[in-house]
Write a structure and sequence with these properties.
By secondary structure, the protein is α/β, with parallel strands linked by helices. The chain has 18 helices and 20 strands. It folds into two domains: 2-250 and 462-477, Rossmann fold (3-Layer(aba) Sandwich); 274-456, Glycogen Phosphorylase B (Rossmann fold, 3-Layer(aba) Sandwich). It binds adenosine-5'-diphosphate and alpha-D-glucopyranose.
Length: 478
């Protein structure tokens, strides 16, 4: 099975969120089960070319009246997966993938239309005719429509596509005049086609034209059929319901593994948790907090946006601060949430520490050193951190939505089953009750140890989900 996997971000080369984690770990997992998988992404300014090889491939694509040229670099993920970087100086040589402090880059339509065209042109130049092109999120969601509109003589004519939906809140809408840059027939620009709210809609286009669709968890696959979480695409998705499957993301146990992690001060395992205590001490020290063993550390690592549920935290913050714990948070995002965390820290300097920013090494220290991890998301297509937490013996407190619901099992003291604390309603009262339950359980040593052990025993590796993708690819080409 030959698979081309494309996304706008791929860890460890470039990452803003979980999409990069998936794009950096699913393709190697596919390679490991016999697929010939290659990955394609843009060469952003932040990606160092030191470890990459410049290829002889030259790409050209027409967009409107202009021809854009690109060169191609090659790298690797693991030992078996080749990664191709599209190098187009004017479009991609910027520090970030999507935008800067002023918001999205104004030429994102051009940048990402080119990426879609470049993926196909690269394959022609490489003479690599895949069985499946697997695209992710809106940035590469024009590929399915481009494939379906190729002339019969084209090298890629008939190649099938799969689109994975990681987050319907981001859809890629651009002014109608950008339609002609795509080379797609103008006749597709209708309400039944790629038009939405008068704009060219990348994600809608992918949903209409991909041969199969996946959502990143079984629950999210159902939730996006409702107006609350379909973000206007629920009807279009409803029409394609038979082609939509939910497959839970896996995690990369080479990177997120307390037994091997090079980014934490002491390694640990299910059998010997003494290293975790050292990580906790190091974490508290890093943030200038005392280490009172009776107080659990609640960790947060998140993009600070509405989706992540911090409005609920703000609503009960005062009530919550009456309870006995440390809070350590790392994140960046909307100013109002950054301000909220900074103010909470100022008011409770002995118990709350916050770092505003992006810091991968610190994420590992928080996962390892915290006692519990908070993700009160309003919606969460999959979520990666709750799975990392469980692997690091840090039971998550999560809301029952999307992948959080599918990966965390509520702790039941009576049976000794469960891996975290799950609350149903997206309201502040339910969040507070879950936090109280977690703190109470922390106080009962034997119960807590069982809970920690249950989470660490879970296998969230890609093995199972990569198999599900392979089965799906086989069905699509059958
Ligand atoms: P989303 O993709 O919606 O942000 P996920 O839970 O799927 O949510 O993935 C988030 C990923 O980004 C995780 O790997 C998390 O550790 C990482 N991350 C989020 N915020 C930061 C940050 N401030 N610094 C470093 N890594 C972060
Ligand atoms: C998106 C979602 C997140 C998911 C990630 C990877 O960023 O917000 O829930 O884990 O994609 O699929």
């Amino acid at each position: 099975m030959k698979v081309v996997f494309s996304a706008a971000e791929v860890a460890p080369f470039v990452k803003t969120g979980g999409l990069a984690d998936v794009a950096g770990s699913l393709p190697p997992a596919l390679s490991a089960i016999g697929c010939e998988a290659i990955v394609v992404l843009p060469l952003y300014g932040s990606i160092k070319t030191d470890g990459l090889k410049k290829t002889a491939i030259a790409i050209a694509a027409n967009m409107g009246n202009s021809t854009y040229q690109a060169t191609v670099y090659k790298g690797r993920l693991g030992s078996r997966t080749s990664v191709y970087f599209i190098s187009q100086h004017g479009l991609y040589s910027r520090p970030n993938p999507y935008g800067d402090q002023n918001g999205d880059y104004p030429d994102n339509a051009l940048r990402f239309i080119f990426l879609n065209l470049a993926v196909l042109e690269l394959l022609r130049q490489l003479k690599f005719r895949p069985d499946i092109i697997h695209v992710n999120d809106w940035h590469v969601a024009l590929v399915p429509a481009l494939l379906k509109n190729l002339p019969k003589a084209d090298y890629l004519y008939g190649v099938r596509s799969v689109l994975s939906l990681h987050n319907l809140a981001y859809q890629g809408h651009f002014p109608p005049e950008t339609m002609e840059l795509t080379g797609l027939p103008a006749s597709l620009f209708t309400a039944d086609g790629v038009e939405m709210y008068g704009m060219l809609a990348f994600l809608k286009s992918g949903i209409l034209f991909a041969d199969a669709l996946t959502a990143v968890s079984p629950s999210y696959a159902k939730e996006i059929l409702s107006p609350e979480l379909g973000f206007g695409l629920e009807k279009v998705l409803g029409k394609r319901k038979k082609s939509l499957a939910g497959i839970l993301n896996g995690i990369d146990h080479d990177e997120w593994n307390p037994q091997k992690d090079q980014l934490i001060p002491a390694k640990f395992s299910r059998k010997d948790l003494s290293g975790k205590e050292k990580c906790r001490a190091a974490l508290l020290k890093r943030f200038g907090l005392e280490n009172d063993p009776k107080k659990p550390v609640i960790g947060i690592v998140s993009r600070l946006i509405e989706q992540k549920g911090f409005d609920l935290v703000a609503e009960v913050a005062e009530e919550m601060m009456k309870l006995d714990f440390y809070l350590v948070a790392l994140g960046t995002g909307q100013p109002k949430y950054e301000e909220f965390f900074k103010a909470l820290q100022a008011a409770h300097q002995d118990r709350v520490a916050v770092e505003i920013g992006y810091n991968n090494a610190l994420t590992h220290l928080i996962e390892a050193g915290a006692d519990m991890f908070l993700m009160p998301s309003v919606f969460e297509p999959c979520g990666m951190n709750q799975m990392y937490s469980m692997a690091y013996g840090t039971p998550p407190i999560v809301r029952a939505t999307g992948g959080l619901k599918d990966s965390v099992e509520d702790w039941r003291p009576a049976t000794g089953k469960g891996t975290g604390f799950v609350f149903d309603k997206a309201d502040a009262k339910s969040l507070l009750a879950a936090v109280k339950r977690a703190l109470k359980t922390f106080g009962k040593k034997a119960e807590w140890e069982k809970l920690v052990e249950n989470g660490m025993a879970k296998d969230f590796s890609w093995k199972k989900s990569a198999e599900l993708y392979l089965q799906l690819y086989k069905k699509v080409i059958a």
